[in-house]
Amino acid sequence: MKTTLLLASLLLLPLAGHAACAPTDFAIKDFKTSISGAGGSARIMLAGELVNNCTDPSAAQIRIDAKDTDGKVVQSKEGWPAGTTNIAPGSAAKFDLGRRFRFQSDMATYTVSVIAVRAW
User: Where is the signal peptide (predicted)?
Assistant: First the structure.
């Protein structure tokens, strides 16, 4: 009886977390990097725009990897540029995840990718 009640309850829940969009439906536009200051007071800017090219309002999670000259990842951070808000189709959300990184002198390149999609 409890199992039937639990199953019935789960079937009645809305599927708000399911997105009809995929990470490939999002694009990163105008990704720019810069470092100002030096040493422990260095500020890193890793900014750009996340564009929703899907037909449904959705949000996407991105990951930025900081790599050394050999291409080895030295730091990696993730974030949701629009937070818990969906991005309308054709619209963009600006982001700057630089504050999440701690400067290391061996950081040479940065890559950004869309890793997950969700509809809130």
Answer: 1-19
Show the domains of the chain with their CATH numbers. 17-118 (2.60.40)
| β-strand partners of 75 | 66
- Structure tokens of 35? 């470092």
**CA nearest to 97, candidates 81, 83, 115, 108:** 81
Tell me how far apart the alpha carbons of residues 29 and 64 are, in angstroms, rounded to a whole number.
14
Our CA angle for 58, 49, 101, nearest 5°, is 105
* CA separation for the pair 110, 55 (Å, rounded): 29
Phi and psi at 47, nearest 5°, equal -120, 155
Digits of tens for pLDDT over the chain (120 positions)?
555 444 444 444 444 445 589 999 999 999 999 999 877 778 999 999 999 999 999 999 999 999 999 999 999 999 999 999 999 999 999 999 999 999 999 999 999 999 999 999
Q: How far lies 84's CA from each of 6, 23, 37, 43, 61, in Å?
A: 28, 16, 32, 26, 10
